Amino acid sequence: MTLQGPTCHKQSMFLGRVIGNVVATRKVEGLQGLRLVVVQPVTEAGVDRDNPVVAVDTTQAGPGDLVHLTSSREAAVSLEQSFVPVDHAILAIVDSVGGRNAQIDAKWPSKAQGKRGRTT
């Protein structure tokens, strides 16, 4: 997996799927006690787009969870200690997305039963 600068940074809010964890033994002061996860940005239809990003998890999201993220300055101010040096932060675990181009439900994209009892 390559973690390069994503092109999704042009969008300050977007959807993603948690695909991994980041283990860091040392973090800057404002990140202590917060989890870092790898998130694959997706379209409203659930299709992968752009490169994976590392995000601060403020919601206790698990592998396979569909999440709502913010980026840039909004990510930095979303944490309890403002202006921590982060590029992406998870703001919500998404249960469903509806609309003209979107049909994602709580079962997507988990491949196994999740911590909230969801299955595919």
The averaged pLDDT comes out at 78
Radius of gyration: 14 Å
Give the spatial strand order of the biggest sheet: 1-2-3-5-4
List the total number of helices: 1
CATH homologous superfamily placement: EutN/Ccml
CATH class descriptor name:
Mainly Beta
**Which class do the helix and strand fractions yield?**
mainly beta
- Architecture per CATH nomenclature, i.e. the level-2 architecture: Beta Barrel
- Rounded to the nearest angstrom, the distance between the terminal CA atoms is 25 Å
The total domain count is 1
Order of helices and strands: EEEEHEEE
Give helix % range: under 10%
What proportion of the residues form beta strands (DSSP E)?
25-35%
Please report the total strand number as a whole number.
Answer: 7
What is the CATH third-level topology name?
OB fold (Dihydrolipoamide Acetyltransferase, E2P)
Q: How is the biggest beta sheet arranged?
A: 5 strands, mixed, barrel
Q: Which stretches of 5+ consecutive residues score pLDDT under 50?
A: 109-120
Instruction: Write down the overall geometry.
Output: globular
